[in-house]
């Protein structure tokens, strides 16, 4: 077996890379409204600055998405959309 060069194993390959996140079925009719996008953008924007708390950012996102989930629609579907 031929020896591999360091660069052959050190550089990650991006071919055939897929996400490990599997989006669930909606379970009902769902349409993402512009008002929801604006609300999340206004209240949920996280830029990673030192004074920002990622835990608070996630809590805000979950609270906003919980108020918008239509009956019969999977909440994870809404959050991942």
TrEMBL record:
This is Putative ovule protein.
């Amino acid at each position: 077996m031929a020896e591999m060069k360091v660069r052959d194993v050190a550089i990650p390959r991006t071919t055939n890379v897929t996400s490990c996140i599997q989006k669930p079925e909606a379970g009902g009719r769902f349409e993402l409204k512009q008002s929801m996008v604006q609300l999340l953008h206004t209240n949920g924007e996280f830029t990673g600055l030192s004074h920002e708390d990622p835990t608070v950012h996630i809590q805000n996102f979950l609270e906003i998405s919980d108020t918008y989930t239509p009956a019969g629609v999977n909440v994870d579907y809404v959050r991942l959309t």
